[in-house]
Amino acid sequence: MYRLQLLAARSLIAGALDQFTPLTLTSSLTGVRHKSQGPSVEKYGQMRFSTAEAKVSAGRLDGKMREKSLTMDTLNPQVKAVEYAVRGPIVIKAVEIERCLEEGGTKPFSEVIKANIGDAHAMGQQPITFLRQVVALCTFPELMDSPSFPEDAKWRARRILQGCGGYSLGSYSASQGIEYIRKDIAAFIEQRDGVPSNWENIYLTTGASDGIMTILRLLVSGKDSSRTGVMIPIPQYPLYSAAISEMDAVQVNYYLDEDNCWALDINELYRAYQAAKQHCQPRVICIINPGNPTGQVQSKKCIEEVLHFAYEENLFVMSDEVYQDNVYAPDCQFHSFKKVLYEMGPEYFNSVELASFHSTSKGYTGECGFRGGYMEVINMDPEVKVQLVKLLSVRLCPPLAGQAAMDVIVNPPQPDEPSFKQFHQEKSSVLGALAEKAKLTEQILNAVPGIKCNPVQGAMYAFPRIFIPPKAVEEAKALGMQPDMLYCLRLLEEKGICVVPGSGFGQKDGTYHFRMTILPSTEKLKVLLGKVRDFHISFLKEYSALE
Fold this sequence. Notes:
Elements: H1 2-18, E1 23-25, E2 32-34, H2 41-61, H3 77-81, H4 89-102, E3 113-114, H5 129-139, H6 151-162, H7 179-193, E4 202-205, H8 207-219, E5 228-234, H9 238-246, E6 250-255, H10 266-276, E7 281-288, H11 300-313, E8 316-320, H12 337-343, H13 346-349, E9 354-359, E10 373-378, H14 382-394, H15 400-410, H16 420-446, E11 451-452, E12 461-462, E13 465-466, H17 470-478, H18 483-495, E14 497-498, E15 500-501, E16 514-517, H19 522-544
Parallel strand pairs: 3-14, 5-6, 5-7, 7-8, 8-9
Antiparallel strand pairs: 1-2, 4-10, 9-10, 11-13, 12-16, 15-16
Helix pairs in contact: 1-2, 4-18, 5-6, 5-15, 7-15, 8-9, 16-19, 17-18, 18-19
């Protein structure tokens, strides 16, 4: 048997060598090589590959193949448990349809309108000029000599670069972030809230998600009934459920009140907490304000109740505030959890552990790709704080370009600076357009029979409730999918509209929703909403006829 394997290997190697010809063309970089010069780099690679092939073939003769080390059977089970609806099956299908259209395929529409994710620039929003100027100057300091860049942008870029090793954005920073920027963030928080902020409690992160994951890693511990329970709102942003699954923590759902504009009901918090204590140890409560996917803005009274609840039950508070600039309803106002905690008095402010998160990705800048963000952590045990810095050190540091972008957001042009007028116009234009589109979305969806949409008070999403006929529910179950997944797939395949099923965010049993962003241009948003209206009416007629 061994001799047969050896002969087979030799035969394959000889065949590979016979492929060499007197003149072998290689790439334009190596030119023409003659046989007398020996095999080219390209042919050498082919020869090595052929040798490997021979060894594999020889192995096959023995009927044995090397098994893969990583398979679905050996994969970390927590990874298999992770789900992230925002980039899930609907989006994969949308990409397939886009590719089909690009290759000349025919569909009942000419383009896919993606409203599945809060990616402002992908939806056509233009960058804020001043932010890009500062980052460009940091990236290519030679531009400092250009008269095309305003002096206030140059001043900020020089200051950021002074905090970078070698005066370069390509260097590592401290794991907590550039010190100048951390101090700017602390000053921003003090100005926003009128509350003291210690820059040493500020940590730059790779987007808000990085900070949220880091804090959760610190919090998750224990086994069985002592395993950490993480209280999250339902509906929720799927980052939270995905992180909880990955860390094998216990998800504790508290339901927002859809009939009351997705308000947070303190009685529901107590219900969820008491029920969870039977099988885990709730240690942290997560709040998203303004809400994603629901678009609600929490009142000050509501925030006070949450903080009092956390104080009583000794819970760590995580406040996701990335949409703090996205408030559209005239009777709503953003209140930071830190400010409200401070105003509740020293008994609360000096004891409740709170991590607050912000990002470059949302607001009026929409700079998702820079992956910039920060978290402010207060009242953390000093010894645990050392462990936090250690954990941050493992990933070295957040991207410095993202740190620079974050600095512009917290340190924008002031009224006496040359860039202020343009900056103010661009910021107001973005937020004004979003406010108009929030109202437009609510009005058009609520005019459709079988759709109910709460006011989009803030953030950049609508989360309408949709009526799905019983026959459609039965069909979805027969296909092994959620009814709103069937609805959204049909909407995509028939109208080219990509939205995310509400089941990917969580919802009360028997209710169905989808999440859509309000980021497309006004004209494209009208087209999108019109197609949703037409599809929904057709969908109801089709399945109601089967009743």
